[in-house]
Amino acid sequence: DFIKSEIGHRTDIIVSGSSSSFVIMACNNSPELFNRLILVNPDSIDVCSQLPGPYSKYYKRLLDFPVIGTLIYHIAVSKSAIRDSFEKAFFNPRAVKESTVDICYEAAHLGFSPKSIYACVRCNYIRCNIANALKRIDNSIYLIGGNENESVRELFDEYASYNPAV
What we know:
53% helix; three-stranded parallel sheet
């Protein structure tokens, strides 16, 4: 919708991580809106295909409770939890500024229902199988990954096996 209403023509897209699956699915649905796709450290196709686990529904319901759910949410998005996630996500976690942690902390507490977004991500409700969409896309697809990621070559080969345009 943003590309249609604001940009108005085919555009290049750069995304990272889990956002790659959204762009692949959107490109599959409306290929006329997309030019080149640039995916930075995308999730593997297996990770994208993960279904909600057997306890996801119960965890989501638990988060919906006002007091207990809010407590769990505030623990999960506390500054220390955000710092810990940066340590796992960044090659050099010391390069992450405290102001970045503060911005993420603030963003986690804004909006009408931030718990809902957290629940969907945590319970794998945002995952979708991108294999068929990746096969059908006829756009140029570029993958970028860091050398420190030991499985980056396998990830690139996995994507290329589904679509030679990668």
